[in-house]
Each structure stands twice: as C-alpha cells, then as structure tokens.
Amino acid sequence: MDEASRSFTAGEVKFFSQCDTGSIPVIVLFTKFDYLYNVAYTQLKSMGTSWKDAKALAPKHAEESFANGPQLNFLKDVPRPPKAYVCLPSMDNEGADCGPLIEHTAAALDNEVLKQLFVSTQQTILELCMRYAIEKTLLEHLDPAETTTSGGQKAIIAKMGAWFPHISVRLSQSLEVVLINVGHLLASKCKSVDPPLSLSYVEHVVPLFADELHDDHCVEIQSRLLSVPSHSLPLENIIQLISAVVVIFEHSFYIFDKWHYIWDQQKHVPSFYVALEQYMASLHAAAVRKGVSAAVQAYEEAVATAAKRRESSYCRAKVELIKTVLEVALNNRLSRPDNAT
Description:
Layout: H1 10-18, E1 27-31, H2 35-46, H3 51-67, H4 70-77, E2 84-88, H5 99-108, H6 111-140, H7 150-161, E3 167-169, H8 175-183, H9 187-190, H10 199-205, E4 211-213, H11 215-225, H12 234-259, H13 271-280, H14 284-308, H15 315-331
Helix pairs in contact: 2-3, 6-12, 6-15, 7-11, 7-12, 12-13, 12-14, 12-15, 14-15
C-alpha cells in the first residue's frame, strides 16, 4: 500500500480539511496493510538480507517505512487530523486480529466523548418514549366517552408515565398499570414465563431508584393541566392532557437524572412535579394548546367528511392526528436543566 496503490481520494481530503466532527474522535483505518509486507520483503532482499530474515523483518520494516510515508505526513498536516490511525493486515483471513482497533478506539473515547454519546442515545430513547406514549394512548382513548371521568383521565396519566424509565407507577389496586412498566419490554417473554408474572416479580424488576407515580400525583397533574378555562369538547381535552403530560414526563427525566444521587428518598419532591411547574410557567403550554386545538379540528373535519361519504374507516384521520400531536409535543419540549447528563 504505497502512495501509488492508495492515495487519499478527493472525498477523504475534503473530509479532513473541511469537516468538523467536534469532540467526536475519528480513527483512520489502513486495511490490507500486509501488502506492504511484500514491498518491505523485496527491499530487504535487495539490501542483501537472507530470505528467511527478510520474511521475519518485513512487518516491522513496513511499519517503520509507513510511519514516515506520505499517508501519515498528509494526516499530520490537515486542519482536522484524526485522533489515531490503525494498520490492519490480513483482515480477510478467518480469525483476523482486531485487537489494535479495539485498543485505539478505547483510548480515543475520553470521558467527555462518552458523555456526549450517552446524551445522544438518551435523547433518542426519550423520543421513542414520547412516541409510544402518545401513539398507544391516543389509539386506546380516541373514544371520549371512556375518558371524560376523573378516573379515566387519571388512568391515562398513569399509563403514559409507565412508558418512561424513571417513573414507577404505583396506583392503588391497579396491578395492570404497574405491569406496564415491564410489560412492553418483556412482552415477548411473558408467554413463556411459568408461573405468570406476579406483583412481587414486577417490584424486583422496577428500578429501586425511581420517581413513584401515585393516585394523588395523577389527580394533581390532571387538576393543574385541565384548570385552564376551555370550551373544548371532551376529545380535545383528553388530547390536550396527553400532549402536556408527555412533555412534562420527558422533561422530568432530566431533572430526575440530575438529582437522584443527592435525593433524600423520603423527602424529595418528585421530578414530574418540578417539571409540571416549569411547564405551566412556560410559553410551551400555550403553544401546545394551540397546536393540539388545530390538530383536533382538522381531525374532526376529516371524520365528518368520511362520514358523509359513508366511509367505514377513519384510519387515515387517526394516523394524521397522532402524527401531528407527536410533532406538537416534540417541538415544545422544555429546555434541559443546566448540567443535566
């Protein structure tokens, strides 16, 4: 792999010259490095080295020559050089050695990088939590007759809380809701469990450090969110509740993550209460109400049009409603607390 056999392409030159990866490390891999062993062998033979010694010394000679070669000289001079480089010979062979790559990768990932990667993964997971909480809850409760009661609305809040990893739902006489904490994650396993999952099993699965969501919490959240004067129909009230709750629970995760190491488990204020106060005081609350109101109006118009045409399915209208509500929630997330991981 000399300069003639592998010079940098225009795309690679542009990457190292113009692309800024921030603190995310870049490692350059030189594969098929064993090609240079043949070049080194020939050079050593031309210098009078025996074929046996030339064969043994070729790998080391190739590495020494490569260290001063044009490829590495180029990488040293680019505006944004890589964190490391790794030479990998014979990678087409079974049992090829990936040890050097693993070692250099581990060395390149310092604490700050790991933190940023963790945050990126964390944000992706929370978006999925929001998506499933909205999709599943809306599909189950689009019939307003089932959810206009206080108990029905409380159940909605509890079911949505169960989708978030830092919330443990603990409603009185409600094993079904508690099971949601692990039911979705273990759904594929539950059928094979014998005996069936019990409450004691669930309590062992639920993290020891979590914000517990009780009946009185749900009542308080429901009361605060629906206290704003509204002439809306029951369906819109329910969707307003769902949209606000998912934003609050998402934000509460960062508060929980920031605080849980220093909490007095007997006296701390639940993270979702803090998030509730911040949400109510923010401009996002009004934006969510406005966005949801428009989405529900569009949904009801689509349903009315489908009824006039005697269409039996409202699937498209439901899909559009759920999509819009999710967008409203994602676009109105609260800013993360300072120093949150």
